[in-house]
Amino acid sequence: MTESVQVAIVGAGQAGLSVSYGLKQRGISHCLLEQHRVGHAWREERWDSFCLVTPNWQCQLPGFPYAGKDPDGFMQKDEIVEYLERYAQSFAPPVREGVSVHAVRSRSPRAGFELETSQGRLHAAEVVIATGGYHTPRVPSAAQKLPSSIFQVHSANYKNPQQLPDGAVLVVGTGQSGAQIAEDLQLAGRKVHLCVGNAPRCARRYRGRDVVEWLELMGHYDVPITQQANPDQAREKTNHYVTGRSGGHDLDLRAFASEGMSLYGPLLDIDERLLHFAPELARNLDAADDVYVGINRAIDEYITKAKISAPPGARYVPLWQPVTEIERLDYAKAGISAVVWCTGFDSRWEYIELPVFDERGHPRHLRGVTAVPGLYFVGLPWLHTWGSGRFAGIARDADYLVAIIAERLRASQRQNPHDQFTTPS
Predict the structure, then answer these.
(1) Whole-model pTM over 0.90
(2) In the CATH hierarchy, which top-level class contains the domain 137-341?
(3) C-alpha to C-alpha distance for 408 and 414, rounded to whole angstroms
């Protein structure tokens, strides 16, 4: 006999757990299907020195806000996993670990959904997809042109400098992962060659406070995606690089260069002995600095308007300038023995056999609610606000969806009092 539940949640990271918390508070029967373990991505897809880039006080899971001794600090990888595990222990969600979901299909508007899993079929009135948007490591096809003697690893599988063979390291990409991994390697004494992309950056602290605190006060994190000038562009924009390592500090690629790191523009191609770079290093460094300065300027204006007493701000002065654009590098002569691809992730949604995706393969939704009644997404970047894919905003998104789910189930029970899905847990 096929099991039936009111709600099936796919994924038991912070998003899935947050929805489960709300459902359990309302007595709605549900289950969480987790392919690995609770918090798998934090546990297995982060390097050893990884830590949050947002302060601990922004960790506001429903019913479980951060209550540690260092609200202005930045939890390290193991502490993040422990935080999620303690959250799960606090309300005992019905998690089924080691269960893969192979297909999600619609049975009919009234009959709900059928989920094909590694443990058999499951029927659910409502389905919440809570697997985030970063599923498959993205590596450019040019990687295949490197000789087998060069060790290659994606940021999702990078752990520490000791994992790599002796020699120089090429890091491709300067989003948060690329910039932080480049620093990790440089601090370990490795020679680093860094391909600089168009990611922006921001200050860690400015005028006496963490920049995140200023932006929180300014209401920046409450602005919904629908009020962004270009919603699609906002969703695709690379995150600002900054770090919480060692108490938190700026990541300045110019400072890295002045300390011996070699910087180049984006990687274009690879041939039998050469790496080819776009001549865009100076432009990308300047653009990142412009964002850095612009954020500080907005904070200055807010302080003045709100009449807040704060220390004066320091003007940013570039520490290093590229003398010329290097467009080719012989990787053998440079002694490069390893490449770390910090080139992002692709989403994997093929198991969802429902018409909810646009021409680019992105889920169509409004604040997580799709056009297929009863199917929802949560935990995606910019699902509703900047914090939707982070600890900061997941509670608001989860509460919103749980309220909709509860109302739909109540309406269904009124119309079909003997429906198999409407019996509370």
Answers:
(1) yes
(2) alpha beta
(3) 10
